[in-house]
Amino acid sequence: MNVSPSLVLANATIPAGARGASPSSILISSAGHILDIGDISASAEIPTIDLGGRLVTPAFVDMHQHLDKSFTLADAPNPDGTLLGAIEAFRSYSKGLTRERICERAQATLDRCVSMGTGAIRTHANLDHEMGLKSVEAMCELRAANSHRLELQVVAFATSSAARGEIALARQLLERAVAAGADCIGGTPNLAPDPTAYIDMLLDVAERHGLPVDLHVDETLDPQARCFDHLVEQTRRRRMGGRVVGSHVCSLSAVPDDDARRSIDAAVQAGVAVCTLPAANLFLQGRDRRQLVPRGLTRVGDMIDAGVLVATASDNIRDAFVPVGSGDVVEMARWTILAAHLLTDAADRAYRMITDIPATIMGMDGRGSLRVGAKADLVISGCANVEDLIAGGAGTRAVLHNGQLVAGAL
Ligand SMILES: [Zn+2]
């Protein structure tokens, strides 16, 4: 690490819990790390910017997006508002997509997210026989082109089309995606003819290449859907704890409390993390109900209480899966409080679900937190404290990545 100091952010406000805040200064190294936080005396040799008491938080981590789909709603509307309707709408539309078009649109979404204060995104890139490697290659290209302003992780997302075909063919596709540069293995096992064999195959590929796993599991309110349990059990057996994520896990909210408790305890023991995706769940789940329409989310509060690492994220933005969204992941934190009925320490829990927790899950030690030694990925806003940020949004903000200004003005 280059330890020579290059910038002081003076007169900053640092969060201390949800409602606390303390005045402080931040010393940033020329390599883009935080060298010191506290009472830093001014030096004529080091440029100093007076923040005038503005709040400094870590840049946000949006650990589940689909950059290859965002802003396609007008071209591929969802006819019935269901998950299967969305899958079919995008599948049909994507036949004519070129890698260039995917890149162009994804870059526009990424620009938005950076301007909102997102410093890291994990994006799922569609992978099947119709799309081929187009999407994975496009996302890898974006990862390189934007490395100075954002950390991008690319998940090789074997789609429902891949899941419904022969398992050996899906495996071949995943191997090709890994060779093309994918960072993580993904898929939708619930839609495979043999979900458990399919999960095993996904984990085999990940183990073989030493990659993490992030699966769309149990994105349904059918209580019989229990792919999460098999994922947890296999993670335990293979000692892959800390590298496996179950995204969605909606059906856990449809099973009896005792069953759910056993699943959650097993996830804690195995070290499986969960990403809840309130926008997609609120929009797509429960379309068959006329009364007491469910929220569709997993048991977020129970999981946090038990010790599961739970993140929240955007998922889709203005496409067949989620017709709304601004790219501001703070909105997702806010919606998670409402949709998941968070109560105790709600603002602080929601804040951590878009900062240090997803950074930990994504293996990005040194991002998502405000501490000495961490990367200076920072959001500077006019908020009073964390509760103000989560409840009302950051408003006008300046964004730093590795200590460099990438959006807004200081
Ligand atoms: Zn998703």
Beta-strand residue percentage? 15-25%
Q: Please, how many helices?
A: 14
Would you identify the CATH architecture of the largest domain? Answer: Alpha-Beta Barrel
**What is the helix fraction of residues, given as a range?**
25-40%
Mean pLDDT: 96
How many separate structural domains? Answer: 2
| Distance N to C terminus | 25 Å
**How would you name the CATH homologous superfamily of the largest domain?**
Metal-dependent hydrolases
Order of SSEs: EEEEEEHHEHEHHEHEHEHEHHEHHHEHEE
Small molecules bound: zinc ion
Strand order of the largest sheet: 3-2-1-4
Question: Spans of 5+ residues with little confidence (pLDDT < 50)?
Answer: none
CATH topology of the largest domain: TIM Barrel
**Backbone structural class:** alpha/beta
What's the Cα radius of gyration?
Answer: 21 Å
| Main sheet record | 4 strands, mixed
The number of E-state strands comes to 16
What is the name of the CATH class of the largest domain?
Alpha Beta
Shape descriptor reads globular
Please give a handful of descriptors for the protein shown.
410 residues; alpha/beta; Urease, subunit C, domain 1; TIM Barrel; four-stranded mixed β-sheet; four-stranded antiparallel β-sheet; 23% strand; binds zinc ion
